Amino acid sequence: MRDKRTQHQTLRRITVGIALLLAYWAGTCDAQQGVNVLFVGNSYTYVNDLPLMVQEVAASMGDQLIYQSNTPGGCTFSQHCNNQSMSLICNGGWDIVVLQEQSQYPSFPQAQVEAEVFPYAKRLVDSIYAHSPCCEPMFYMTWGRKNGDAGNAPFFPVLGTYEGMDSMLCERYTYMAQQYDAALCPVGRVWRYLRENHADIELYQADESHPSVAGTYAAACAFYTLFFHRDPNAITFSATLPEATASIIRAAAHSVIFEHLAQWQRPQPQAMLEIQSVSGNTASFLSTSCHADSLTWDFGDGTTATTPVADSLVVHTYSGAGNYTVNLTASRHCMTDSCLLPVSIVGDSTTCIPLSPASDGILVYPNPACGQVNIVLPSGMAQPTVTLCDLNGRIVAQQPPAPTGNHHIKLNVSGLSNGEYILWLSTATHNVIRKLTISNTTR
Predict the structure, then answer these.
(1) CA angle centred on 145, ends 142 and 147, rounded to 5°
(2) Would you state the CATH architecture of domain 273-345?
(3) Which of 349, 360, 380, 379 is nearest to 423 (CA)?
(4) CATH 2.60.40.3080 residue spans of the chain
């Protein structure tokens, strides 16, 4: 039986290899860059060769998955910390490392999990970041046994049912992903969706623990969705399943994962910035950024600085009066997010964002605005780019320069929330900033 399985897997590897080669020769414009993945786990990963099936799913979509795996039967996180898995992690160069604990351990009583699971999960993730700083660690949330864990239920009764065991696994894997800054592939949630909505699809082998081909296919669709951020409904590979069954499984992965991608990914850094005060030529900026390790500041005058997130209040002195644009970039694990904030330095003003003087001849009305803002330019003024920012510096509306000769600009603000905004008119020679209040009618 082992020989037949080996022959079957060899044939599948040849088939997917040919598919990848054809995709390469075809040079399709929508083909994605290859993703290099390490699978660390045990029999829940190697049964039905999950890594190969994910590769086959990816190939059917024109994507390339390159992988290695270390999946000894019954292996735990603590064992992976001292076997070939740690060596592979320390080799570095991974885009994603998938971490799957032994199928029962995360569902055990809290004290036992805190002693036997969490420390080793953290050690694995820390090692991943140490040797592949831009890598994405991803926990593999497994599923409850078909009728619960009867052997351990006398010691921890919640494990006596599928629902109880599955809920404990979900809770513990979610905790690990949140605490150790990792993504989470919720295969167990896809299985639960299928069990509740399509109970006729058998996800288990006869042992009521390991996955059937349908169960592994559900996992493969889940991992593909998170690896490539693409809709699993478009997958054309169906393994050995009837197309109707495969379609239902793909739809489950779409509903659970693709429609809620942000929930399962690592927290993305968010750059947020506001002006704390302006006095003379000196401005104080307050970063309210989150999920960031470091902040990079471009003050708009050719001066830059990098600060730790703890230094949220930054003071900068400009050489002279003028209108500047501050660009703040928040970074974490090679991920970045940026925001812009205009600031006007007039030398002797104590107003955070001073209004442009009336002598500029620009008329902005109504203010407060409801639905639309009218901007009337003086004769001879070049057509500006119109930008509307919230008080965190995020651009919420923008219009390119209007056709030459059009001195009446209309900006639609009907979809914006009520509150204070910054209206910024910029040309090659002018930057005009106005405070704008939006007060859309509510029903």
Answers:
(1) 155
(2) Sandwich (2.60)
(3) 360
(4) 359-438
Task: Assign a CATH topology to domain 359-438.
Answer: Immunoglobulin-like (2.60.40)
Task: Give the DSSP per-residue string, 337-389.
Answer: EEEEEEEEE-SS---SSPPPPGGG--EEEEEEEESEEEEEPPTTPPPPEEEEE
Per-residue pLDDT of the chain in tens (443 residues, 90 and over written 9): 333 333 444 444 444 443 443 333 333 334 446 899 999 999 999 999 999 999 999 999 999 999 999 999 999 999 999 999 999 999 999 999 999 999 999 999 999 999 999 999 999 999 999 999 999 999 999 999 999 999 999 999 999 999 999 999 999 999 999 999 999 999 999 999 999 999 999 999 999 999 999 999 999 999 999 999 999 999 999 999 999 999 999 999 999 999 999 999 998 899 999 888 787 888 889 898 888 999 999 999 999 999 988 778 899 999 888 889 999 999 999 999 999 999 888 764 333 343 333 446 787 877 788 888 888 887 778 888 888 988 777 788 888 887 666 778 888 998 898 888 888 888 777 778 888 888 876 43
Q: How many residues does the chain have?
A: 443
According to CATH, what is the number of the domain 2-264? 3.40.50.1110
Residue with tokens 């007039």: 346
The rounded distance, in Å, linking the Cα atoms of 20 and 287 is: 46
Sheet holding 273-279, edge to edge: 273-279, 282-287, 313-317
Answer whether 0.85 is exceeded by the pTM.
Answer: no
